[in-house]
Amino acid sequence: MSINKLLLGDNLEILKTMEDETVDLIYLDPPFFSNRNYKIIWGDEGEIRSFQDRWAGGIDHYIAWLKERVEQMHRILKSTGSLFLHCDWHADAYIRIYILDKIFGEKNFLDAIDWCYEDIGGKSTNYFKRKKDTIFFYQKTNNKKRVFNQPKKALSESTIKRYGKYFNDKGQISYQKLKDVSPGAFAKLKSIPQDLSEIWLDINKGQPMSDWWTDITAIRKGFTEAIGYPTQKPEALLERIIKCASNEGDLVLDPFMGGGTTVAVANKLNRKWIGIDQSKQAFKVTKLRLAKH
């Protein structure tokens, strides 16, 4: 199998040629079921036709189109691998129930991450403004060797204030110390290590992140990172996903490559990568982007 490759063509046909259980991490950001022809901006006639065809039969057609591709992704994903599927409110419920739960199994659902991006202006609506996407996180199997490098965030001021006097000179609180000084907080923990001397809070390392991501802004016109691709995702978002679910040398696949954010970040983080897209313009843009990285 070719690695560190950009592949031009229909991802379904390309995925069918790939060997079973060879990929460590898959991130896909397929076209949302929004009936907005973003890709027409790129003027790629083949992509325009395909983009329009995906919604010809409504939501059923869209789900069938996406499902057969995810089936192939499940096949080529290692037993220790993970998949992150990025979508929004238009079809997220359908995607989880009719595609991901069916193919990966409900027991292998790990999380639905809410990426909440900054709200700057915009027109008034008669409903709450939709400013978040969902990123479904599934494992191939319940394999103890699955990679998960827990992302950390800085401790909040309120947490530091609440437990400040209990930190040692290294800025740490052990589980034993927590048990002694805050039995109520200790009792609420879902899992407690056998060794209570393990660190519970560390100012230097921060604390485990939740599935509510509000610290990464969406790409906007004028941003240094912006390349003009209409659905471009920020590198910080892909960096968090790739770092948490893969290690250096692992193989990362993006079957809907678009502007190339996934492969650019994977390359920067010393992962192997494969990017697939049927748009010649997306292929060219990604190739130029990699040359600049």
Brief digest:
The chain has 293 residues and is an alpha/beta fold. It has helices at residues 11-16, 45-53, 58-76, 92-104, 157-163, 175-181, 183-187, 235-245, 261-268, 280-292, and strands at residues 5-8, 23-28, 77-87, 109-116, 132-139, 152-153, 172-174, 199-202, 207-208, 212-213, 251-254, 272-277. The chain has two domains: 5-151 and 209-292, Rossmann fold (3-Layer(aba) Sandwich); 152-207, no CATH class.
SSE inventory with pairings:
Layout: E1 5-8, H1 11-16, E2 23-28, H2 45-53, H3 58-76, E3 77-87, H4 92-104, E4 109-116, E5 132-139, E6 152-153, H5 157-163, E7 172-174, H6 175-181, H7 183-187, E8 199-202, E9 207-208, E10 212-213, H8 235-245, E11 251-254, H9 261-268, E12 272-277, H10 280-292
Parallel strand pairs: 1-12, 2-3, 2-11, 4-10, 11-12
Antiparallel strand pairs: 3-5, 4-5, 6-9, 7-8
Helix pairs in contact: 3-4, 8-9
What does this structure look like?
The protein is built from 10 helices and 12 strands. The radius of gyration is 21 Å and the shape is globular. The two termini are 24 Å apart. The chain has helices at residues 11-16, 45-53, 58-76, 92-104, 157-163, 175-181, 183-187, 235-245, 261-268, 280-292, and strands at residues 5-8, 23-28, 77-87, 109-116, 132-139, 152-153, 172-174, 199-202, 207-208, 212-213, 251-254, 272-277. Strand 11, helix 9 (261-268) and strand 12 form a beta-alpha-beta unit. Helix 3 packs parallel to helix 4 and helix 8 (235-245) packs across helix 9. It has 293 residues and is an alpha/beta fold. An 8-stranded mixed sheet has the order 1-12-11-2-3-5-4-10, with helices on both faces. A two-stranded antiparallel ribbon has the order 6-9. The protein has a two-stranded antiparallel ribbon with strand order 7-8. The model has no long low-confidence stretch (mean pLDDT 89). It has 2 domains: 5-151 and 209-292, Vaccinia Virus protein VP39 (Rossmann fold); 152-207, no CATH class.
